[in-house]
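Tokens for chain A. Residues wanted.
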């Protein structure tokens, strides 16, 4: 590993890390063996190929992880990639809770990293869902039938605003909560406003 590859911002990030420091350093060493350029983006070590993001290292309370920006395109023959939430479309993580796991998986990790590099070189893109593919909550569907103009007003919103509403309504576990959320936001939808406008 030549020192010219090391990014001073990542050195600083590692020097300040109180949790996962050893794990980050091990991951860094494995990743740099794969000929990627070390960068620092979104306050995390990020590894790129020709200025395209391949993966980053990040940590949470329960685990640290490498996150592949186009992880959804990897074969994942070992079934170790994790989709953080159901709304994450492209990125996938491999999670760790200790440095021994990382050391033990070095060869596998390199295989995944090299595959991610090949995906980028091939110019593959993750086919993102269109908003029409998101399921409209039943409670909103009922209101579309009840209130003339609501469906049209909803469809006139930008795809991003539609998605925000769909996610917000859908994440409520109980039907009555979903119904009250829909009810509350009908005036904004009719006004052409998004959830946060």
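Reply:
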């Amino acid at each position: 590993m030549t020192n010219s590859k090391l990014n001073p911002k990542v050195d600083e990030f590692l020097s300040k890390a109180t949790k996962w420091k050893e794990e980050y350093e091990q991951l860094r060493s494995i990743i740099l063996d794969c000929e990627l350029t070390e960068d620092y983006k979104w306050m995390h070590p990020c590894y790129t190929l020709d200025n395209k993001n391949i993966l980053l290292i990040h940590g949470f309370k329960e685990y640290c992880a490498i996150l592949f920006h186009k992880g959804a395109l990897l074969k994942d023959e070992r079934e170790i990639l994790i989709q953080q939430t159901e709304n994450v479309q492209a990125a996938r993580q491999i999670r760790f809770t200790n440095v021994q796991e990382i050391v033990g998986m070095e060869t596998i990790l390199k295989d995944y990293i090299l595959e991610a590099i090949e995906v980028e070189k091939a110019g593959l893109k993750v086919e993102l869902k269109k908003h029409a593919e998101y399921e409209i909550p039943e409670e909103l569907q009922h209101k579309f039938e009840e209130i003339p103009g609501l469906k049209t007003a909803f469809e006139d919103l930008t795809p991003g605003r539609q998605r925000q509403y769909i996610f917000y309504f859908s994440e409520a576990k109980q039907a009555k909560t979903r119904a009250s959320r829909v009810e509350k936001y009908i005036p904004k939808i009719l006004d052409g406003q998004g959830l946060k406008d």
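Strands lie at 37-41, 44-49, 52-59, 64-68, 92-96. The chain has a mean pLDDT of 91.
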